[in-house]
Amino acid sequence: MSCADHDDDLPPAGGLHGGGAPVLAEDGKIAVPEEVAEAIRTLIRWSGDDPAREGLLDTPRRVARAWREYCQGYGEDPAVHLVRQFEEVGGYDEIVLLKDIPFQSHCEHHMAPITGKASIAYLPKDRVVGISKLARVLHGYARRLQIQERLTAEVAQCIWDNLQPEGVAVVIEAQHGCMTGRGVRTPGVGMVTSRMMGSFLSDPRSRKEVLSLMGY
Ligand SMILES: [Zn+2]
Q1: Ramachandran region, residue 136 (left: φ > 0; alpha: ψ -120 to 50; beta: rest)
Q2: How far, in Å, is the centroid of ligand 1 from the Cα of 107?
Q3: Which residue, among 159, 160, 107, 91, has the nearest Cα to 131 in the 3D structure?
Q4: Global pTM?
Q5: What residues sit around ligand 1, an ion, with C-beta below 5 angstroms?
Q6: Measured between alpha carbons, how far is 209 from 25 in angstroms, rounded to an integer?
Q7: Cα 211 to ligand 1 centre (Å)
Q8: How far is the centre of ligand 1, averaged over its atoms, from the C-alpha of 79 (Å)?
Protein backbone atom coordinates (compact mmCIF):
# COMPACT_ATOMS: atom_id res chain seq x y z
CA MET A 1 0.00 0.00 0.00
CA SER A 2 1.50 3.32 -1.00
CA CYS A 3 0.97 6.51 0.92
CA ALA A 4 -1.26 7.67 -1.93
CA ASP A 5 -3.92 5.17 -0.86
CA HIS A 6 -4.58 6.70 2.51
CA ASP A 7 -6.66 9.74 1.74
CA ASP A 8 -10.10 8.18 1.55
CA ASP A 9 -11.17 8.21 5.16
CA LEU A 10 -10.38 11.73 6.24
CA PRO A 11 -12.88 13.47 8.47
CA PRO A 12 -14.60 16.46 6.93
CA ALA A 13 -13.25 19.92 7.58
CA GLY A 14 -14.25 23.43 6.58
CA GLY A 15 -13.76 25.71 3.57
CA LEU A 16 -10.83 27.80 2.35
CA HIS A 17 -10.02 29.38 5.69
CA GLY A 18 -10.57 26.35 7.89
CA GLY A 19 -12.72 25.78 10.92
CA GLY A 20 -16.03 26.37 9.10
CA ALA A 21 -18.71 23.96 7.96
CA PRO A 22 -17.43 21.04 5.88
CA VAL A 23 -17.57 21.51 2.13
CA LEU A 24 -17.56 18.16 0.41
CA ALA A 25 -16.94 17.37 -3.22
CA GLU A 26 -19.14 14.94 -5.16
CA ASP A 27 -16.93 12.01 -4.16
CA GLY A 28 -17.62 12.77 -0.48
CA LYS A 29 -14.10 14.00 0.21
CA ILE A 30 -13.25 17.51 1.33
CA ALA A 31 -13.50 19.92 -1.58
CA VAL A 32 -10.11 21.51 -2.23
CA PRO A 33 -10.39 25.06 -3.62
CA GLU A 34 -8.34 25.60 -6.79
CA GLU A 35 -6.46 28.39 -5.02
CA VAL A 36 -5.17 25.91 -2.43
CA ALA A 37 -4.21 23.29 -5.04
CA GLU A 38 -2.37 25.94 -7.05
CA ALA A 39 -0.42 27.03 -3.98
CA ILE A 40 0.83 23.47 -3.56
CA ARG A 41 1.73 23.23 -7.26
CA THR A 42 3.76 26.41 -6.79
CA LEU A 43 5.56 24.83 -3.84
CA ILE A 44 6.32 21.70 -5.90
CA ARG A 45 7.79 23.90 -8.65
CA TRP A 46 9.76 25.85 -6.05
CA SER A 47 11.11 22.54 -4.70
CA GLY A 48 12.43 21.69 -8.16
CA ASP A 49 9.86 19.26 -9.56
CA ASP A 50 7.17 19.45 -12.22
CA PRO A 51 3.62 19.45 -10.78
CA ALA A 52 2.32 18.35 -14.20
CA ARG A 53 4.14 15.02 -14.22
CA GLU A 54 1.86 12.04 -13.71
CA GLY A 55 2.93 11.02 -10.20
CA LEU A 56 2.26 14.50 -8.88
CA LEU A 57 -1.08 15.23 -10.53
CA ASP A 58 -3.25 14.39 -7.52
CA THR A 59 -0.67 15.43 -4.96
CA PRO A 60 -1.96 18.98 -4.39
CA ARG A 61 -5.42 17.70 -3.40
CA ARG A 62 -3.92 15.02 -1.16
CA VAL A 63 -1.60 17.50 0.51
CA ALA A 64 -4.43 19.96 1.05
CA ARG A 65 -6.61 17.31 2.70
CA ALA A 66 -3.73 15.99 4.76
CA TRP A 67 -3.11 19.49 6.12
CA ARG A 68 -6.72 19.84 7.18
CA GLU A 69 -6.23 16.63 9.14
CA TYR A 70 -2.87 17.66 10.65
CA CYS A 71 -4.53 20.89 11.78
CA GLN A 72 -7.87 19.51 12.97
CA GLY A 73 -7.24 21.08 16.36
CA TYR A 74 -8.27 24.49 15.03
CA GLY A 75 -11.81 23.17 14.76
CA GLU A 76 -12.12 22.22 18.42
CA ASP A 77 -11.78 23.58 21.93
CA PRO A 78 -9.76 20.90 23.80
CA ALA A 79 -11.46 21.90 27.05
CA VAL A 80 -14.65 20.12 25.90
CA HIS A 81 -12.94 16.81 26.67
CA LEU A 82 -12.75 17.76 30.34
CA VAL A 83 -16.40 18.69 30.79
CA ARG A 84 -17.47 15.26 31.99
CA GLN A 85 -15.97 14.86 35.46
CA PHE A 86 -16.43 12.30 38.18
CA GLU A 87 -16.62 13.41 41.78
CA GLU A 88 -16.77 9.91 43.27
CA VAL A 89 -13.06 9.16 43.52
CA GLY A 90 -13.26 6.64 46.38
CA GLY A 91 -10.88 8.59 48.58
CA TYR A 92 -8.18 8.45 45.91
CA ASP A 93 -5.87 11.41 46.35
CA GLU A 94 -2.69 10.30 44.63
CA ILE A 95 -1.21 11.12 41.25
CA VAL A 96 -3.14 10.21 38.09
CA LEU A 97 -0.71 9.75 35.20
CA LEU A 98 -1.10 9.00 31.51
CA LYS A 99 2.37 8.09 30.35
CA ASP A 100 4.15 8.08 26.97
CA ILE A 101 1.21 9.22 24.84
CA PRO A 102 2.44 9.30 21.23
CA PHE A 103 1.51 12.40 19.28
CA GLN A 104 2.28 14.31 16.13
CA SER A 105 2.28 18.05 15.60
CA HIS A 106 3.87 20.51 13.17
CA CYS A 107 6.24 23.31 13.97
CA GLU A 108 5.01 26.76 13.16
CA HIS A 109 8.41 27.84 11.85
CA HIS A 110 8.85 25.23 9.09
CA MET A 111 5.53 23.35 9.10
CA ALA A 112 7.74 20.29 9.60
CA PRO A 113 6.56 17.33 11.70
CA ILE A 114 7.11 17.19 15.42
CA THR A 115 6.80 13.60 16.64
CA GLY A 116 7.10 12.50 20.19
CA LYS A 117 5.47 11.40 23.39
CA ALA A 118 3.87 13.20 26.27
CA SER A 119 3.30 12.29 29.88
CA ILE A 120 0.43 14.10 31.58
CA ALA A 121 -0.26 13.92 35.29
CA TYR A 122 -2.48 15.62 37.81
CA LEU A 123 -3.12 15.39 41.51
CA PRO A 124 -6.90 15.41 41.91
CA LYS A 125 -8.58 17.62 44.47
CA ASP A 126 -12.04 16.13 44.37
CA ARG A 127 -12.66 15.36 40.70
CA VAL A 128 -11.21 13.14 38.01
CA VAL A 129 -11.82 12.69 34.28
CA GLY A 130 -11.74 9.62 32.07
CA ILE A 131 -8.04 8.94 31.55
CA SER A 132 -8.26 8.97 27.73
CA LYS A 133 -9.48 12.57 27.91
CA LEU A 134 -5.98 13.72 28.79
CA ALA A 135 -4.75 12.36 25.46
CA ARG A 136 -7.61 14.11 23.66
CA VAL A 137 -6.61 17.42 25.19
CA LEU A 138 -3.04 16.82 23.99
CA HIS A 139 -4.16 16.02 20.44
CA GLY A 140 -6.48 19.03 20.37
CA TYR A 141 -3.50 21.33 20.86
CA ALA A 142 -1.00 19.21 18.90
CA ARG A 143 -3.11 19.26 15.73
CA ARG A 144 -2.22 22.86 15.08
CA LEU A 145 0.94 24.71 14.06
CA GLN A 146 2.90 24.70 17.28
CA ILE A 147 6.09 25.16 19.14
CA GLN A 148 6.80 22.48 21.71
CA GLU A 149 7.05 24.92 24.60
CA ARG A 150 3.59 26.35 23.94
CA LEU A 151 2.05 22.92 23.38
CA THR A 152 3.36 21.83 26.78
CA ALA A 153 2.05 24.96 28.50
CA GLU A 154 -1.36 24.85 26.80
CA VAL A 155 -2.03 21.24 27.78
CA ALA A 156 -1.09 21.95 31.40
CA GLN A 157 -3.12 25.15 31.57
CA CYS A 158 -6.22 23.50 30.10
CA ILE A 159 -6.17 20.78 32.76
CA TRP A 160 -5.42 23.30 35.49
CA ASP A 161 -8.30 25.59 34.51
CA ASN A 162 -10.93 22.97 33.87
CA LEU A 163 -10.21 20.29 36.46
CA GLN A 164 -8.87 22.60 39.18
CA PRO A 165 -6.62 19.90 40.66
CA GLU A 166 -3.94 20.26 43.35
CA GLY A 167 -1.23 19.98 40.71
CA VAL A 168 -0.53 19.40 37.02
CA ALA A 169 2.64 18.08 35.41
CA VAL A 170 3.23 17.77 31.67
CA VAL A 171 6.47 16.52 30.14
CA ILE A 172 6.88 16.33 26.36
CA GLU A 173 9.78 14.71 24.56
CA ALA A 174 9.85 15.14 20.80
CA GLN A 175 11.92 15.16 17.65
CA HIS A 176 11.60 18.02 15.22
CA GLY A 177 11.64 17.35 11.49
CA CYS A 178 13.14 20.78 10.93
CA MET A 179 16.17 19.66 12.96
CA THR A 180 16.46 16.04 11.86
CA GLY A 181 15.75 16.52 8.14
CA ARG A 182 17.28 19.88 7.37
CA GLY A 183 19.49 22.57 8.88
CA VAL A 184 21.85 21.02 11.42
CA ARG A 185 20.54 17.48 10.58
CA THR A 186 20.75 15.85 13.95
CA PRO A 187 18.59 12.70 13.88
CA GLY A 188 17.90 11.08 17.22
CA VAL A 189 18.14 14.29 19.20
CA GLY A 190 15.05 14.84 21.31
CA MET A 191 13.86 18.02 22.92
CA VAL A 192 12.29 17.85 26.37
CA THR A 193 9.92 20.46 27.76
CA SER A 194 8.00 20.42 31.01
CA ARG A 195 5.37 22.44 32.80
CA MET A 196 4.67 22.04 36.50
CA MET A 197 1.76 23.74 38.23
CA GLY A 198 0.36 23.80 41.77
CA SER A 199 1.84 21.26 44.17
CA PHE A 200 4.23 19.90 41.51
CA LEU A 201 5.70 23.37 41.22
CA SER A 202 5.76 24.32 44.90
CA ASP A 203 6.72 21.00 46.47
CA PRO A 204 10.03 19.48 45.29
CA ARG A 205 9.09 16.06 46.71
CA SER A 206 5.86 15.92 44.70
CA ARG A 207 7.73 17.01 41.60
CA LYS A 208 10.36 14.35 42.12
CA GLU A 209 7.68 11.72 42.62
CA VAL A 210 5.77 12.59 39.44
CA LEU A 211 8.94 12.78 37.34
CA SER A 212 10.02 9.42 38.67
CA LEU A 213 6.62 7.88 37.80
CA MET A 214 7.02 9.32 34.31
CA GLY A 215 10.41 7.65 34.05
CA TYR A 216 12.59 10.77 34.34
ZN1 LIG B 1 10.79 24.14 12.80
Answers
A1: alpha
A2: 5
A3: 159
A4: 0.88
A5: 107, 109-110, 178
A6: 52
A7: 27
A8: 27
Q: Are 210 and 97 in contact (CB under 8 A)?
A: yes
List, in order of start, the domains of the chain with CATH numbers: 3-70 (1.10.286), 89-214 (3.30.1130.10)
Catalytic residues: 107-110, 148, 176, 178
Buried b (16+ CB within 10 A) or exposed e, 146-161: bebeebbbbbbbbbbe
Q: What is the pLDDT along the chain (216 residues), one digit of tens a residue?
A: 455 554 444 444 445 676 655 578 778 888 999 999 999 999 999 999 999 999 999 999 999 999 999 999 999 999 999 999 988 777 777 999 999 999 999 999 999 999 999 999 999 998 999 989 999 999 999 999 999 999 999 999 999 999 999 999 999 999 999 888 777 777 777 899 999 999 999 999 999 999 999 999
Ligand 1 centre and the CA of 150: distance in Å? 13
- Nearest Cα residue to 176 out of 192, 195, 191: 191
Query: Which helix (H) or strand (E) segment is 107 a member of?
Result: strand 96-107
Question: Separation of 124 CA from ligand 1 center, angstroms?
Answer: 35
Rounded distance from Cα 208 to ligand 1 centre (Å): 31
Cα atoms in the 13 Å half-sphere on the side-chain side of 107: 17
